[in-house]
């Protein structure tokens, strides 16, 4: 087993499945210590046991509801008391609901912002004093939706716009303090994210051939831990589309109208 992370302690939120699950495995594979947060405590326990069996690395897990401010505070206090200082935070937890503005309830918007934005910010603030004093790396999983909005994704896109804005401001604030900040902007990934975002499966079917593999995403993120990587953008063709959108939004919306309306 390679040991490029040298026992670095890495918190991963939303770790019980999908990208988070694969992040945990790749962190351990590279010699880091995965610290897993998600609501599914029993699933996290199984993961920790399997990771130790596969890699010899003893991780840590805590059942934590990222929509509950008190529970986030409790979980980070427990990590501090049990593990001590950590070296990296990967904010991976998040969800989306794909529906028109007219049909999306206000409490659904609120729920997305609570987890995707405010929960993320609270996690950052919980570890930031330690990172400023001793260095560290913050990775925020955003989305290409944060760069280019599409129909029926108003709440999700708005929350990821907020994540990008927060991430870019944070990076500038802590750049001189030994803290790396990386934004990760992804297109559709083959995970259970769509079980809630697209329960009928129509959008999944339309983008199936374009979906990213969560293992590939996780491997790339872990590869860039503790390096001054500003952004990771996948897939490359979607990032090109996002850049075109910034330059020529009207033309891009016209050219990609059919793709935009597949939700």
Task: Tell me about this structure.
- A 7-stranded parallel beta sheet has the order 3-2-1-4-5-6-7, with helices on both faces.
- Helices cover 51% and strands 14% of the residues.
- It is built from 11 helices and 7 strands.
- The longest helix has 29 residues, at 106-134.
- The model has no long low-confidence stretch (mean pLDDT 91).
- The chain has helices at residues 18-29, 41-55, 69-82, 106-134, 154-174, 193-197, 202-207, 214-223, 236-247, 249-255, 257-260, and strands at 9-13, 33-38, 60-63, 88-91, 136-141, 179-186, 231-234.
- Helix 9 crosses helix 10 (249-255).
- The chain has a single domain, classed as Rossmann fold.
- It is of the alpha/beta class and 263 residues long.
Describe the structure concisely.
The chain is an alpha/beta fold and 263 residues long. Helices cover 51% and strands 14% of the residues. The protein has helices at residues 18-29, 41-55, 69-82, 106-134, 154-174, 193-197, 202-207, 214-223, 236-247, 249-255, 257-260; strands at residues 9-13, 33-38, 60-63, 88-91, 136-141, 179-186, 231-234.
Describe the sheet with the most strands: 7 strands, parallel
How much is the radius of gyration in Å? Answer: 18 Å
Number of strands: 7
**CATH homologous group name:** NAD(P)-binding Rossmann-like Domain
How many structurally independent domains? 1
Count of alpha and pi helical runs? 11
Relative helix content: 40-55%
| Low-pLDDT runs | none
Spatial order of strands in the largest sheet: 3-2-1-4-5-6-7
String of helices and strands: EHEHEHEHEHEHHHEHHH
The rough form would be described as: globular
**CATH topology label:** Rossmann fold
CATH architecture label name: 3-Layer(aba) Sandwich
Structural class: alpha/beta
Strand content: 5-15%
State the end-to-end CA separation.
Answer: 42 Å
Mean pLDDT: 91
| The top level CATH class name | Alpha Beta
């Amino acid at each position: 087993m390679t040991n490029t992370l040298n026992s670095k302690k890495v918190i991963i939120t939303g770790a019980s499945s999908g990208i988070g699950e694969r992040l945990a495995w790749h962190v351990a594979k590279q010699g880091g210590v995965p610290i897993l947060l998600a609501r599914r405590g029993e699933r996290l326990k199984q993961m920790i046991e399997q990771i130790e069996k596969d890699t010899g690395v003893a991780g840590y897990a805590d059942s934590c509801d990222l929509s509950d401010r008190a529970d986030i505070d409790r979980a980070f206090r427990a990590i501090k008391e049990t593990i001590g200082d950590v070296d990296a935070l990967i904010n991976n937890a998040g969800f989306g609901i794909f529906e028109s503005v007219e049909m999306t309830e206000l409490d659904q918007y609120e729920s997305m912002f609570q987890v995707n934005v405010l929960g993320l910010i609270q996690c950052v603030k919980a570890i930031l004093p330690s990172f400023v004093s001793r260095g560290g790396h913050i990775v925020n999983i955003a989305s290409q939706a944060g760069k280019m909005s599409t129909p029926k994704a108003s709440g999700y896109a708005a929350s990821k716009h907020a994540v990008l804005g927060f991430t870019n401001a944070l990076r500038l604030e802590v750049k001189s303090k030994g803290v790396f900040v990386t934004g990760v902007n992804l297109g559709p990934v083959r995970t259970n994210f769509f079980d809630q975002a697209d329960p009928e499966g129509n959008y999944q079917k339309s983008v199936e051939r374009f979906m990213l593999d969560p293992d590939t995403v996780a491997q790339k993120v872990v590869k860039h831990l503790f390096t001054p990587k500003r952004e990771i953008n996948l897939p490359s063709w979607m990032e090109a589309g996002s850049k075109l959108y910034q330059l020529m939004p009207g033309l891009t919306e016209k050219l990609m109208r059919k793709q935009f309306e597949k939700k």
